[in-house]
């Protein structure tokens, strides 16, 4: 008997005459299922396998049976309070208390006086079964939640593991300064490479959470996947070279244009390609191919790497299922990237499939997206070309920029980067000092960390707006990139919001959007 | 006196960084991924083995090979791993270096394992 069936089963203890048999008959006639038990002890045995409710006659409850019943009820799990229907004997006014009276105060008991009307018994039994079904539902829900908590714990353990290798490489490289305290180019490259890897990991994690919450909104435009593929190849070429894996793009002569978010499409292709490189040993090969097939844009990423076991193919895009096997794998691979790929493909009304002949036999990932129409393709391509030319023409004149950031390393790095691009930079380490710098130095643009100690970035923005009006461009810099965070920043007086870690490109893009004020730029660079 | 160290690590950037720290401190290193480790151990004697165990730590093939063929070498193994309790160490003779680690911890554990 299955658990579900057991939740509909009524255990009946009616030791005198044919009461049990008659009750079973009536219950069956009303679509329920009763099982007669010899006594409370047998009922307690059967209850261990699960039941929907208990029906007892009062004469079955001698003191020893009440004890057995009490013990049985006390052993129930937290979710369980089995309903009990008791058919009482005739009550005599002034009679001594029944043995079941103390039990009634802490158990789900319904009393039905005899002689019993059938419809009362049926109604009580149906009500008891409904109540019991709710308890089983709660049990199942608790089980699911418990499993999710375990999955989350396993995931966090794998995440911790995943972060250790890149952090270890960064730490050792950072400690290899020359005698003059400077890092050589190789070490700086390693630190940058691993920092970018960690940034991608964190971004993917945040994006997964945003997809799950339905918070990713695609900025749809027409995108030629050949551009996306070339960019992914360019970005991943260094890591492929470092792993001595050959990567090749099989170019497509025809445009492969889809309607989608270019940033997300780039994320999809980069993640699949990066996954293939990661799981291909040195001297192996990875190929990225594009095609127009049957009204669909098709991206194929093929490798001759470690392959996928047949029984793992189905779980390859499952975040937690991948995490399950990832501990101890030096290359990492908790499946964040692939889980995100699947979700982003679904958002684009596309699909992704993995194929492998087995472990050691390489893998093939096939992504399919709906092709754009010819008319849309032509119009969009012209617009993109115009925009590209306009962006390339926009030169950034030197500006006076304030950095208000409590993390000294982040502050110094931003200062150096911006100074290298010719800007005059002033800095502050907290909100109060930052506000003073804004008012006294009157920069063109201020990058303000939102999570400042004491006076936070929102307060700085509000106070700066009050005192400086629109004379300064205020840019919020924070680790929180959700639309809600951006909205709050704009409401506090910021003009823009960028998510940490701020890249030179991000800052330059903001600078492009805000042309300098009429006053001549400072020459004190 | 220079030491000869076998570094077994599949994460290339970490393996390269470890190798450079060790070579700057007068150690001679052979660096391999886990596939190549056993072949090296068959032919070469090392003063210490720096090992990132694969998959389940108790099922690491290098540790299994050492336990079966060169059990005395286990005392010269430094496991680079997530934090482990002493109960989880596959062999009590192994040394533990918790990732991520810095130069000083690395050199200290190598010295202890020789």
Using brief descriptors, characterize the structure shown:
heterodimer, A: 525 residues, alpha/beta, five-stranded parallel beta sheet, five-stranded mixed beta sheet, 17% strand, disordered C terminus, B: 114 residues, 4 helices, 35% helix, globular
Structure description:
The complex is a heterodimer of chains A (525) and B (114). In chain A, 48% of the residues lie in helices and 17% in strands. Chain A is α/β, with parallel strands linked by helices. Chain A has a 5-stranded parallel beta sheet with strand order 2-1-3-4-5. The termini of chain A are far apart. Chain B has 114 residues and is an alpha/beta fold. Chain B is built from 4 helices and 5 strands; from the N terminus they run βαβαβαββα. A 5-stranded parallel beta sheet of chain B has the order 2-1-3-4-5, with helices on both faces. The longest helix of chain B has 13 residues, at 12-24. Chains A and B meet through helix 6 and helix 7 of A and helix 1 of B.
Order of helices and strands of chain B: EHEHEHEEH
Structural class of chain A: alpha/beta
Shape of chain B: globular
Tell me the radius of gyration of chain A: 34 Å
pLDDT average of chain B, as an integer? 88
Strand content of chain A: 15-25%
- How far is the first residue's CA from the last residue's CA of chain A? 82 Å
What's the total helix number of chain B?
4
Residue-averaged pLDDT of chain A: 84
List the uncertain runs of chain A.
323-332, 519-525
- Portion of residues within helices of chain A: 40-55%
Largest β-sheet summary of chain B: 5 strands, parallel
Q: State the major sheet of chain A.
A: 5 strands, parallel
In a few lines, what is going on in this structure?
The complex is a heterodimer of chains A (525) and B (114). Chain A has 525 residues and is α/β, with parallel strands linked by helices. In chain A, 48% of the residues lie in helices and 17% in strands.
């Amino acid at each position: 008997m299955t658990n579900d069936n057991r939740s509909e089963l009524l255990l009946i203890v009616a030791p005198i005459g044919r009461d049990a048999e008659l009750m079973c008959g009536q219950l069956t006639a009303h679509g329920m299922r009763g099982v007669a038990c010899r006594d409370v002890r047998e009922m307690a045995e059967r209850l261990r396998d699960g039941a929907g409710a208990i029906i007892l006659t009062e004469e079955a409850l001698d003191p020893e049976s009440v004890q057995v019943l009490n013990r049985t009820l006390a052993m129930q799990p937290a979710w369980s309070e089995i309903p009990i229907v008791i058919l009482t004997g005739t009550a005599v006014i002034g009679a001594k208390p029944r043995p079941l009276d103390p039990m009634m105060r802490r158990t789900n008991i319904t009393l039905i006086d005899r002689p019993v009307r059938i419809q009362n018994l049926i109604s009580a039994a149906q009500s008891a079964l409904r109540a019991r079904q709710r308890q089983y539902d709660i049990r199942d829900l608790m089980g699911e939640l418990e499993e999710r908590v375990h999955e989350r714990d396993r995931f966090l353990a794998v995440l911790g593991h995943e972060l250790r290798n890149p952090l270890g490489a960064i730490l050792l490289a950072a400690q290899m300064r020359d005698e003059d305290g400077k890092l050589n180019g190789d070490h700086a490259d390693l630190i940058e490479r691993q920092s970018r890897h960690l940034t991608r990991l964190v971004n993917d994690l945040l994006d997964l959470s945003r997809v799950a919450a339905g918070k990713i909104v695609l900025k749809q435009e027409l995108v030629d996947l050949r551009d996306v593929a070339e960019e992914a190849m360019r970005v991943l070429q260094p890591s492929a070279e470092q792993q001595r894996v050959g990567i090749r793009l099989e170019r497509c002569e025809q445009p492969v244009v889809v309607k989608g978010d270019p940033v997300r499409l780039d994320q999809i292709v980069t993640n699949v390609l990066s996954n293939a490189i990661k799981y291909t040993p040195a001297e192996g090969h990875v190929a990225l191919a594009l095609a127009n097939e049957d009204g669909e844009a098709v991206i194929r990423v093929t490798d001759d790497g470690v392959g996928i076991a047949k029984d793992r193919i189905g779980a390859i895009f499952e975040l937690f299922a991948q995490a399950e096997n990832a501990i101890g794998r030096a290359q990492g691979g908790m499946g964040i990237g692939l889980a995100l790929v699947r979700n982003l493909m679904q958002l684009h009304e596309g699909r992704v499939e993995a194929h492998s002949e087995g472990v050691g036999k390489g893998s093939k990932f096939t992504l399919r997206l709906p092709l754009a129409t010819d008319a849309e393709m032509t119009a969009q391509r012209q617009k993109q070309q115009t925009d590209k030319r306009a962006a390339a023409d926009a030169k950034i004149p030197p500006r006076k920029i304030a950095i208000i950031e409590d993390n000294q390393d982040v502050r110094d790095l931003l200062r150096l980067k911006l100074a290298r691009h010719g800007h005059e930079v002033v800095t502050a380490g907290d909100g109060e000092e930052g506000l003073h710098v804004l008012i006294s130095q009157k920069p063109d643009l201020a990058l303000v960390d939102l999570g400042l100690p004491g006076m936070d970035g929102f307060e700085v923005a509000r106070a700066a707006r009050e005192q400086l009006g629109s004379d300064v461009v205020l840019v919020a810099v924070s680790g929180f990139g959700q639309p809600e965070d951006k909205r709050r920043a704009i409401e506090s007086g910021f003009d823009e919001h960028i998510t940490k870690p701020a890249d030179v490109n991000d800052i330059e893009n903001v600078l492009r959007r805000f042309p300098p004020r009429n006053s001549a730029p400072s020459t004190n660079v | 006196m220079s030491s000869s160290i076998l570094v077994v690590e599949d994460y290339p950037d970490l393996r390269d960084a470890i190798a450079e720290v060790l070579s700057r401190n007068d150690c001679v290193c052979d660096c391999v991924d886990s596939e190549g480790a056993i072949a090296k151990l068959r032919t070469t004697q090392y003063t210490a083995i720096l090992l990132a165990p694969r998959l389940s730590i108790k099922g690491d093939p290098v540790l299994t090979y050492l336990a079966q063929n060169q059990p005395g070498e286990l005392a010269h193994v430094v496991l680079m791993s997530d934090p482990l309790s002493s109960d989880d160490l596959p062999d009590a003779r192994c040394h533990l270096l918790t990732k991520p680690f810095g130069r000083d911890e690395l050199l200290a554990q190598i010295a202890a394992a020789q």
